[in-house]
User: What shape does this take?
Amino acid sequence: MINRAFFISVLFITVILGPAASAQDTLSVNLAEFIQKGMERSGQVAYEGRAVDLAKNRQRQARSQRILPRFELSTQHGAVPGVKSQTDLPKGQYYLDPNLENDWEDWAIFTRAEISAVQPIFSWGAINKAIKAAEAGAKAAEYQFSAVKAEAELQLFELYYSYLLAIEISRILEEAKSQIDRVDRQINEMIEDGDPDLKESDVFKFELYQAEFEVNKVEVEQRVESIKRIWNYVLQAEEGVIYRPVENFLDPIPFDLEPYDYYQNMAFSNRPELKGVNSGIEALRNSADAVRSQQYPLFFLGLTGSYANTPNRPRQTNPFIINNANFATAGVGFGIRQNLNFPSMRASVDRAEIELRRVQDLGDAVMDGMILELNENYQNAAIAQVRVEQTEAALVIARNWVRNEQLNYDLGFGDVEDLLDSVQKELELRLELKQNVFDLNKRVAALYKASGISVNQLSVN
Assistant: This one.
């Protein structure tokens, strides 16, 4: 009856919406604009977007390992005393003086710089595989981000139509209030005239109905205000501004239900979760290959260079004698690097293979969940479509019933209880129809999301 219809509508709005700040001026937005603004201001979407940035950063890091992955420079600086010799040796041969002493009256700044670089020549494909793994990982992160955005779009879609649902319920109640007031006047006239056809039980029923109606009317009015506040919160409206839908009526979105195979094929082609899993499998496969390659020796070229300069200390001319405060050396050579901890390397390979199999199993799980989700949403959309059609037909019957009972009553041989029942049934069906239209739109959007189709395609311009 009427209480159940009110309860369903009010409960739904209560679950979806919550308290936020108040507003004054009104700006109208359509569905596409609402979704766009909501996505731009969503903290959750922004947070997930950082995962894509991190994946791209790892990709750049992997690529940087191809050219000079190790290129280091270090310097040391300080104050040191000079040296003095009591012999006639040239400064370039001071190392021959066993009694060479520090000159504590002669100070200078000591500077030393050391540079080293390693350039891989052949790594058995380890570097290239690591780069490919990072690239596939970046793609997987982008697909995951697309899945998060699709979920956010669906939530914003439902929030948009919840506002229209609240507007429609409020409008229906306003119209019903006029009808109830009319019946109230008629009953009062019958009471004043002492009409014997009016039963006392009818009066009590109508008074109870009026009381329940007023309570539910206030609840819906408060929910409309709550929706306005939550909209402004989602859209981060400026103070003194409130957003509302550009439409004033909740209508079924234009939709033709295609055969199930159509949506399944679209899901296989478009679902970002599937694409993300495939990219994740590719990333781990390349990562496993890179780990296997690390079991073999790495061939590389090495470059080292050192330079030190202290003005108050002489450079020694003997190539076998180096003055740590004043010298220059450089070297280039070929090297081989091999990790000899084979058990650890084998464990790393096993771990990479386990992670690969785990993601492959995840792909099967995602596929299973996608098929179940798609079947459920297809079924829900089909049922919701029929429910709207049947409720519309029932509402036509209920309106005819009200007109018939009102006409009979005006002619003087109608029954008050039948009139009240017809009015109550019509109101219940009007509310139920709008709730069913909302459910249909929500089910269709969920079907689109499950099929990998953007909810934006359902936008009403």
In short: The domain at 2-458 is CATH 1.20.1600.10 (Outer membrane efflux proteins (OEP)). The chain has one domain: 2-458. DSSP finds nine helices and six strands in the chain.
